[in-house]
Design a protein that fits this description.
It contains 8 helices and 17 strands. By secondary structure, the protein is α+β, with helices and mostly antiparallel strands. Strands 8, 9, 10, 11, 12, 13, 14, 15 and 16 form a 9-stranded mixed sheet that branches. Bound molecules: 4'-deoxy-4'-aminopyridoxal-5'-phosphate.
């Protein structure tokens, strides 16, 4: 409602948006030692609901493990905080951003004396790459930056510091007139986007890089694999995709909580298929939106209703 003060949940309390500040010597600010999530609440036919919140919580807690970053709140507390944020701010649909990081305490690389601070924010956020992108796809470039290998930084943990690589790749693409990047892994195989997983369609079958390719284990990726298999598609979910296969693909698309299902119509100025959203992409995309808007009864256990 207009006039209401926007609210953020910070370390167990609801605080006004403008007051949700941190100390400049916060460990996570200096060393990228935080973990976060990005989920969405949808305005469904059955009311507002968070999509696959339990899986986002699973990944949130798991992401802290390599860093021994223990989140001092329970799943129930985080869930209640998030639902309350949606209620207080009257958000029918929203992007949801939980974050946990080593806070202010000491500035050695070892975070021994640092508390683990936790916050959740929600805000309305439309199509990540634009409405036009959902319908006609985006133009992307293969980045000159490689993704860090999982042997360098665990890529399956959604760590704040990892996103400097995403920024480098994404901004390089945008400086060159593209909407987004595709990032190869250290071995030169296709990994994913800066904030999206990648799918390829060839001869009616669907391929997506496997977890061994140094990707994030995307929740939308899992959703799309499930929806595609339910529709009879063969999905190769542990694929190794070479750069050259991008150009000769029938269709390509990105998936992500922010990006949802976004078609890719050109890579490095080469048209993919007919240079527009392909038929398989369209089918999967409409199945995805039917699902998250609850136009179907399927997978109701994937929804946490307000
Ligand atoms: N890869 C990266 C690097 C990401 O940041 C994201 C967004 N979380 C994804 C893939 C997609 O994951 P999800 O579908 O869980 O949002």
């Amino acid at each position: 409602e207009a006039g209401d003060i926007e609210t953020i949940w910070q370390n167990g309390e609801f605080v006004d948006w403008d007051d949700a500040t941190i100390h400049v010597l916060t460990h996570g600010l200096h060393y990228g030692t935080g973990i976060f999530e990005g989920a969405r609440a949808y305005d469904t036919d059955n009311g507002t609901a968070i999509f696959r919140w339990e899986e986002h919580l699973d990944r949130f807690f798991a992401s802290g493990k390599p860093y021994e970053l223990e989140i001092p709140y329970s799943r129930e507390e985080l869930t209640e905080a998030t639902l309350e944020l949606l209620r207080r701010q009257d958000h029918d649909s929203a992007y949801i951003r939980p974050i946990a990081y080593f806070g202010y305490g000491s500035l050695g690389v070892s975070p021994d004396d640092c508390p683990t601070d936790v916050a959740v924010a929600t805000w309305p956020w439309g199509a990540y790459l634009g409405e036009e992108a959902l319908e006609h796809g985006i133009e992307v470039m293969v980045s000159s930056w490689r993704k860090h290998a999982s042997s360098q930084i665990p890529t399956n943990a959604k760590t704040t510091g990892l996103y400097v690589n995403s920024l480098l790749a994404g901004e390089e693409a945008r400086r060159n007139g593209y909407a987004e990047a595709i990032v190869l892994n250290k071995e030169g195989q296709v990994a994913e986007g800066p904030g999206e997983n990648l799918f390829l369609v060839r001869d009616g079958e669907i391929y997506t890089p496997g977890l061994s390719q140094s990707i994030l284990d995307g929740i939308t990726r899992d959703t799309v694999i499930t929806l595609a298999r339910e529709r009879g598609y063969t999905v190769h979910d542990q694929a190794t995709i070479s750069r050259g296969e991008l150009n000769t693909a029938d269709e390509l698309f990105f998936t992500g909580s922010a990006a949802e299902v976004t078609p890719i119509r050109k890579v490095d100025n080469v048209e993919i298929g007919n240079g527009d959203r392909g038929p398989v992409t369209e089918e999967i995309q409409s199945a995805f939106f039917d699902l998250v808007e609850r136009k179907t009864d399927a997978h109701d256990d994937w929804f946490t209703y307000l």
